[in-house]
Specification:
single chain; mainly alpha; two-stranded antiparallel ribbon
């Protein structure tokens, strides 16, 4: 009986999906747009037209508004968890306690395994950066709306899909790596850290490019009305969740690895190697013979 109900539900869902797809294909794909797809995708990168007013003071990129919202939500959540959740932790953890401990332990273990010498600051930074990347990426799934200076309604993007946000996070990660080099080897660690200046560009544009690709694909799918009924659910969720997990892991892993490499105490060269005393009599004997 249960199997028959499940089959009927599946058939009904397939029929509804087929009807929506057939109806979308019968509609015009160019109706309801006041800008071309080239303009829409170019503005998703450069933000020259669809800008949002910041408290009525000046127009800014929508990614900045998204960054403010994500940062405020994370700070409020951290304060609530610290005040109301952590004091109730028990020896036998509940579901929320297990989730928090696993999330914190993931980045703490990453820091300890990559940098056993100086991991006191690295763990909290990896936790903060990974949490911000993950939450900032899935932020676009909520579809919060904003009104542009031109009077249009747009969906707030992920904060790191703006190149400025991605570059600043890359700069911050590089400064953390530089601080590890100084903490582990003093001023002698600065030259070795400066040789890895390409990390700044690598981490910044890798993060920006990955998140921007998902934004452009979603923008393309939503633009055409013939594709905007079924595919956005799959494409949006797939790209967003994959980017949230992968990019949070990649940036934190690269930061921890290079931080551990730079903070490792360097051994001074030029140490004299003493020959073992057992060989000295043998050498003298050979010379005397």
């Amino acid at each position: 009986m249960d199997k028959s109900k499940r089959n009927r539900f599946l058939v009904g869902w397939i029929c509804i999906t087929a009807l929506l797809l057939a109806g979308s294909l019968l509609l015009s794909s160019s109706a309801g747009h006041d800008e071309t797809i080239q303009t829409a995708m170019q503005d998703a990168v450069l933000h020259e037209e669809n800008q949002v007013s910041l408290f009525g003071l000046l127009p800014v990129n929508p990614g900045l508004i998204s960054g403010f919202v994500v940062t405020g939500v994370l700070l409020a959540a951290a304060a609530l968890i610290r005040l109301f959740v952590i004091p109730k932790f028990q020896y036998v953890p509940g579901k929320l306690q297990i989730l928090l401990e696993q999330w914190v332990g993931l980045f703490d273990n990453m820091a300890r395994s990559s940098s056993p010498w100086r991991c006191g600051f690295l763990g909290p930074y990896l936790f903060a950066a990974g949490t911000y990347i993950f939450c900032g990426t899935i932020f676009e799934l909520f579809g919060l709306q904003a009104i542009t200076t031109a009077g249009r309604s747009i969906t707030l993007p992920a904060p790191l899909s703006d190149v400025n946000g991605a570059i600043m996070l890359g700069v911050l990660s590089y400064l953390v790596i530089l601080s590890g080099a100084i903490a582990g080897n003093g001023l002698r660690g600065i030259p070795s850290a400066l040789t890895e200046i390409s990390l700044l560009l690598s981490m910044s544009f890798r993060l920006f490019g990955a998140l921007l690709s998902g934004l452009l694909v979603t923008e393309l799918v939503y633009y055409y009305i013939t594709l905007s009924f079924v595919l956005p659910v799959v494409v949006g969720v797939l790209f967003t969740l994959l980017h949230a997990v992968i990019q949070a892991y990649v940036l934190t892993m690269l930061t921890s690895l290079f931080y551990g490499e730079m903070s490792e105490p360097k051994k001074r060269s030029g140490r004299q190697k003493h020959r073992s005393p057992a060989r000295r009599p043998k050498t003298r004997l050979v010379k005397s013979v």
